[in-house]
Amino acid sequence: MKLKLHHINLATENVERLDTFYREVLGLKEESEGLPVLEKKKGYAGDVAFVSDGAIQMHLAERDVMAGFRTGQIVNPVERGHIAYRTDDLDAFKAHLEEQGVPYSDWANAAVAGWRQIFFYDPDGNVIEVHEVSE
């Protein structure tokens, strides 16, 4: 099982303002390739802008403090943002977390079509996503 940094998600009340900042101040480009297809009717219907430095994506997501309640999940990745890693074997990674005693919320594909996602906390309460692209 491999992990690779995939994106950083920032939650905001104003997606357009944050998108403009990252494009104009930091010179990031609008990302158009390899973007997730959001499942807007399964629990998170917020707006998201996608920018990149050419290697790592940033997902600038509309804050939604109720997404966890609507999906029945404890960890809410769009309340304050998260860092995301892509894996080639999510089941093995879940087993690894269980062996380490780390609880996680299994969002499956409730937020993104074609991605199986889990979210958990690091020891300081930062949200981490690990996802696998599935058919």
TrEMBL record:
<dbReference type="Pfam" id="PF00903">
    <property type="entry name" value="Glyoxalase"/>
</dbReference>
<dbReference type="InterPro" id="IPR004360">
    <property type="entry name" value="Glyas_Fos-R_dOase_dom"/>
</dbReference>
<dbReference type="InterPro" id="IPR029068">
    <property type="entry name" value="Glyas_Bleomycin-R_OHBP_Dase"/>
</dbReference>
<protein>
    <submittedName>
        <fullName>VOC family protein</fullName>
    </submittedName>
</protein>
<feature type="domain" description="VOC">
    <location>
        <begin position="4"/>
        <end position="133"/>
    </location>
</feature>
<dbReference type="InterPro" id="IPR050383">
    <property type="entry name" value="GlyoxalaseI/FosfomycinResist"/>
</dbReference>
<dbReference type="InterPro" id="IPR037523">
    <property type="entry name" value="VOC_core"/>
</dbReference>
